[in-house]
Amino acid sequence: LLPKQILMNFSHTHLGPTVGTWAYGFFDLRADRAYLEKVVQATLEAARHAMVSAREVTVHGAVGKSSIPVSRRLPDAQGIAQWAPNPKGEVCRSLPVVSFQDADGKTICLLFSISCHPSTAGGHAISADYPGAAMAKLDSHFGKPVSLFLQGCGGDAKACVIADGNGGKSWRSGTFEDIDKAGDIAAREVLEILQSGLVALKPRIRCALKEMRWPLMGVTRKDIEAWKSRNDELLTMMAHRLLKRLDQGIPLPTFAPVLAHGIQLAQGLRLIALEGEAVGEFGNKLLKWYRRGVTFPMGYSNGTGLYLPTERMLKEHGYEVDSTHEYGFPASLMAGYEAILKDTVDEFKSLGIR
Q1: Which of 125, 141, 180, 235 minimizes the number of CB atoms within 10 Å of its CB?
Q2: Tell me, what's the pLDDT at 304?
Q3: 324, 332 contact by CB (below 8 A)
């Protein structure tokens, strides 16, 4: 398989070992190598199993709505986004579902995607959060493991089940019961789509992979020096890292590399994936650019990259805009990248991903 034929989409959890270089991972919080080795071996085993058990299938799909995502960007009186539930904020509610069925009409693989952070709870246990709970319920319904969750564009959304803290003014710390409740909602919504009926789709595979260059705001050495006086341990450590880079004669990056991946599985069925924590508005933009059929707008694919806010959000700031230093970048994104993404989608369409 070529790289463009391999899409790696990651769900998200605050219940698990360190596996990457986000934030403190750049410094003293190293990845858990033993855990990573288990992940690698399990992935290889799954790939081998898929090869030896391959069979002919028919493809059936439909799109519904999910009630799980709630925006976590609540503008204050000055228009600055605060980390709080915003039931009126824009999220991507699309819930695409695809069933791959064998010659007997039985589902052997069920894809579904929700655009919401699976960060319902946090701690030192290991959990797949609500996607895992939803998959367990769906697998129980079918009597065998068939379900596969794909992470949508949920960079600025959290689950509705924890949006009731302080009378709905803040996010409540979730529990395993909340995870199970969100998983139950997700599984029920998927089953409702299945019961409403899916549309048969004609298989047609096309693939495209492109690295985009999203521009960053300009930043000076003086700007970075000022980070050290902001009483933020992580920001101070990142400042030292970037200043060392400048001292070595290495220029600071002026763009963020962001992979875009398009895979068409059937006529009117496509996966459009971005490398990074894409916000819900980007999910809706991708759906607008692909109006017909079944589209899986996805973030968290082929790497974590950085948060991907829309240009409208830049003036609102907030975590999704201002957290680029946690991913090793010296500045926030600069307007102009939405046109780059639109051009990339148009290029995908010209390559047959329609």
Answers
A1: 125
A2: 82
A3: yes
